[in-house]
Amino acid sequence: MLKHMLTAILFLHYPTFAKESVLIENVTVVSSHLQEPLLKAHVLISDGRIKAVSSSKIEKTFDVQVIDGTALYLAPGIMDSHVHVSSIPGMGFGVEPVAQKNEALAEEYYKQQPYSFLYYGITQVVDPNPGLEWKKFTASEIHPDYYRCEVITSRSTFPLVEKNDELSKSMFSYIVEQDVAETAQNSPEQIGKRIAESGASCIKIYFEDGYGDESHWPLLSDDTLKRIRKSASQHKLPLVAHANALDMYQRAIDAEVDVIAHGLWNWGEFSRETEVSKSMHGVLNQLMSKSTGYMTTQRVIAGLGELMLHNSHGVSEYSKVTPEELIEWYKQPSAQWFKEELRAGFDGLPDEVIARIFLKDRVGKGNKILKILTEADYPLLLGSDFPGSPSFSNQPGLTTFLEMKVMADAGVSLAAILSAATINNARQFNIDEDYGTVEVGKVANLLLLEQNPLNTVDAWSNIHHIILHGEVFNRSDFAADTIANKSLQRTSR
Q1: What are the residues whose beta carbons fall under 8 Å from the beta carbon of 141, sequence distance 6 or more?
Q2: For the chain, what percentages of helix, strand and coil (3-state, to nearest 5) are there?
Q3: 391: which of 53, 166, 307, 316 fits an S-S bond (Cβ 3.0–4.6 Å)?
Q4: pLDDT tens sequence across 63-114
Q5: Closest by alpha carbon to 262, among 248, 277, 283?
Q6: Sequential DSSP letters for 71-87
């Protein structure tokens, strides 16, 4: 039974391994474990893993595919540690009302989504709220390696308390009962055990007592949080926390979570301040002293602001990652429902004012936090929280790249961005034996780039080839505007 379970879990994470060996010659290797790039390197890939990285030439065999890496840069594939593959930009999760009304569009999106991540070089993802449609992602013939958290919530706490219909509530399977014995079916202990047995890679809990200035939702009790923490540790599952406000950060840190899955853009009682207060510095010092993971997720806020801009659906890059039918739907009045909700939430302020609140004020606050952590040389995690909301201004793959650009704009060094996108995420989720660097023995999820990512963040969007488990693809193989008219063609054929 255990053997069958482990086999099933393996196939959920990994696509089919390539049968052909690949030899990349005269390439520059860029990887966080190296003090400086390795020039004119030769890299052999076989059985989906890196077999050799050498400064000397490697003998070719008759069955090896040879790639000339001259003027190219070989880097690890990107890992986005915060995406939601069941959530459709502009619609929300697949079981929610707007997606249910547009099932055909939703299905077209789900078919394209794995390729869109790969188009931008994302070869591993972590999904901290998988919803009910995540198996559509892993059922794709080719997809990034997929890891998921499972959510523990209660009927009286966020996010379940926010859902208004039974179908939306059905997303949550692990409903904890507080103040029950360890042996009770829905105790923190039994739920932790069931999550571990499901093949999940982590547990997610929410610290959210209300949007904006609201604070009317209850939180899980301190005792329940301690029991969840203990259960997660027992099953070696990282504990990930949703939190983006100062007081919620403090609660998450007190609960000894491993990762806070959002940037700190809601400053609470200091919201009118322009600089980080002494109290906020104290919270950040606690975070760093406990080595709590920090995801940036600035694109959550940027996506809200951009939605309010004129012609926000007309971004040219969308054609590469979004089905044409869905782009056309974004132009329709029915697709503006979330924009109308934002307008109502801001009491009818002009769209440009709402956009400025998000894009200048809140993104600016998150950038100030990033600056403090960067100056302390604190390791960051690349996490976009794609799509972050029902905004269609965040699209798969593109959002991750834009998150990296936001980090660069905030002053994060290109070397730190490389680490955040590769080895830091792999270590945080205990998969660094397989991912995160270009080293012998690791899974061959790699990118051949046309520019050095240590010279420009734009290198991450100038992709020559994507290598997934040793199988080599042209970037154009994954583009939405071409994939609709042809099946994927592997370059090794």
Answers
A1: 15, 16, 488
A2: 40, 20, 45
A3: 307
A4: 899 999 999 999 999 999 999 999 999 999 999 999 999 999 999 999 999 9
A5: 248
A6: T-EEEEPEEES-B-TTE
